[in-house]
């Protein structure tokens, strides 16, 4: 019944714009939810994985890791998955992992070299 109405109260599929962008645009009202009517159906094995994390080491604008008092730890830098996401726990769009990873890796390198 829920699928026919395009609803997914259990898992919220299709509840965010990013989520909907990944769905089937021909499927309305919710591109991520459809009733199982007529076959044929195909089965795929889905294995959970992770391509990033929102948790990580807290850093400053130079990619220096901060201690519990928010002071930089000399010589310790973080970028990419090791660094707490600048998105603050949200995933607004693809690229939010690799973009900051490359930018803060570059920034860390400049700081280590004393150029910033
Ligand atoms: C399927 C998939 C799709 C993705 N799509 C996107 C996307 O579209 N856009 C986007 O922005 N991001 C995407 N990501 C996320 C992005 O790829 C990662 O966030 C990013 O690669 C993390 O970079 P990293 O250098 O921090 O870590 P990693 O790339 O994981 O690098 C860590 C490295 O450390 C090595 N290592 C681990 N332990 C040790 C050890 N003890 N000694 C020596 N080496 C070690 C590992 O082998 C690895 O090479 C995707 C990820 C996956 C898996």
Task: Please tell me the overall pLDDT.
Answer: 92
- In whole angstroms, the N-to-C terminal distance is 59 Å
Q: Give the strand tally.
A: 2
Spans of at least 5 consecutive residues with low confidence: none
List the helices and strands and how they pair.
Blueprint: H1 17-21, E1 64-66, E2 72-77, H2 98-112
Antiparallel strand pairs: 1-2
Bound molecules: flavin-adenine dinucleotide.
Flavin-adenine dinucleotide binds near residues 51, 52, 81 and 95.
How would you explain this protein's 3D organization?
With 116 residues, the protein is an alpha+beta fold. It folds into 2 domains: 1-42, no CATH class; 64-112, no CATH class. Helices cover 17% and strands 8% of the residues. The protein contains 2 helices and 2 strands; from the N terminus they run H-E-E-H. It has helices at residues 17-21, 98-112, and strands at residues 64-66, 72-77. A two-stranded antiparallel sheet has the order 1-2. Strand 1 (64-66) and strand 2 (72-77) form a beta hairpin. The longest helix has 15 residues, at 98-112. The protein is elongated, with a radius of gyration of 21 Å. The model has no long low-confidence stretch (mean pLDDT 92). It binds flavin-adenine dinucleotide. Flavin-adenine dinucleotide is lined by residues 51-52, 80-82, 94-99, 101.
